[in-house]
Amino acid sequence: MAVTTPPSLPLAPAGHARAILALGLPLIGSHLAQFALHVTDTIMLGWYGVLPLAAGVLGASSFFVLFVLGSGFAKAVMPMVASANAGGDDAQVRRVTRMGMWLSILFGVLIYPAFWWADLILLRLGQKPEVAALAGEYLRIAGLGMIPALLVMVLKSYLAALERTQVVLWVTVAAVPVNGFLNWALIFGNWGVPELGVAGSAIATVAVQVFSLVILCLYAALLRSLRSYQLFIRFWRPDWLAMRDVFRLGWPMGLTGLAESGMFQASALMMGWIGTVELAAHGIAMEITALTFMVHVGLSNAVTVRTGALDGAGDVAGLRRGAKVGIALSILFAAMTMVFFVALPEPVISLFLDPAEPARAQIIAIGTALLICAAIFQFADSMQVMALGLLAGVQDTRIPMAFAAVSYWGIGIPASYLLAFPMGYGAVGLWLGLVVGLVCASISLMLRFWLRLPRA
């Protein structure tokens, strides 16, 4: 018996808003709690020193780029499970979720050599030797957490598609104090634990990923209403047809995420060419903007589930109405975020720095200018992730991948380089180039969704 039923037909805009928020608010909370883990790492490494902060930012962002590439299979699980569940097909729910886990494990094994040789790769990419060495130390440990991190994402997608978003929220919230406790002990050497610095932060991250995976596995396996899916029964048996379907939908989603996150990672690498202080300011500003971006990601996930269910139920009119409501909600929050970035940049940036840090004033000045740039691209950033969520819901991923790649790498990165270096605008120019890429992505992806959608 399926956990959820297809959406009621038809729903007024207010009904769509309630449905999206009922799904989206716990997912937003989960994404914010997930991001709080990274904020905790950044703040504590900032207190530990500017060099560890720069290395930690570089290491964490490098991990994230590869994680996003592998997460395409987990992202594919969400619309596929939502659609199968709307049709009452429990077997298909189980099949695609299992094979999403299989593909995630395979990816984690194959990608680990990149973590092991990360210091050499970062040196080849022009990073300073002392930063590359510390970032490599971080990544050799953090890379061990790739498999549990991806499996956690698969299970979160599975549970979210079945509208079990509350458990996704509470497991992530529970991980935050665990991460804080481990960071405080392992980075600084408190409570009799050796002082490990950047390596301690990486160990804490892996431990939290394993903790989250264990809790979600127990929930998925033992909850009475989920037992009918038999998710882990004969888990070792391959299902090649389902694996092919998840792979076909998932690899473009992974590459789309890689194109976007890679653009931001490339910006971090270019910022490292400018200077360590600029890289530290970039890392802090990026943490702040990414924190608010989690709201849009949560709304996008909710829209993916709703769109997948409505598409599976054949309700084109409801799908169109729901899409408009999701877009309106995202625009509303983007406007609120713009005001926040313009009004309160300095107090927020100060939270990430030790009051005694010699470069504090310089980092705050650079970070404030970057947040002004971030305010400019709020609408574009929110619209591109919402468009991707809508397109994922109707299982359209290959053409959007191409649009994203051209927007981010064919336009955004060249614009960043030209504005930052030949034109001499430095850190601010680099971020303005990101604005250009995001605007192109938002326009092309939104047009793709609305032009391919059948008339009601």
Report on this model:
The protein is 82% helix and 0% strand. With 456 residues, it is mainly α. It has one domain. Helix 3 runs parallel beside helix 11, helix 8 runs antiparallel to helix 9 and helix 15 packs parallel to helix 17 (426-452). Residues 1-9 have low confidence and may be disordered.
Please specify the SSE layout and strand pairing:
Blueprint: H1 13-48, H2 50-70, H3 72-86, H4 90-116, H5 118-124, H6 129-142, H7 146-161, H8 165-188, H9 198-222, H10 240-274, H11 276-313, H12 316-343, H13 345-350, H14 360-376, H15 378-393, H16 398-420, H17 426-452
Helix pairs in contact: 1-2, 1-8, 1-11, 1-12, 2-6, 2-10, 2-11, 3-4, 3-7, 3-10, 3-11, 4-7, 4-10, 5-6, 6-9, 7-9, 8-9, 10-11, 10-16, 10-17, 11-12, 11-14, 11-15, 12-14, 12-15, 14-17, 15-17, 16-17
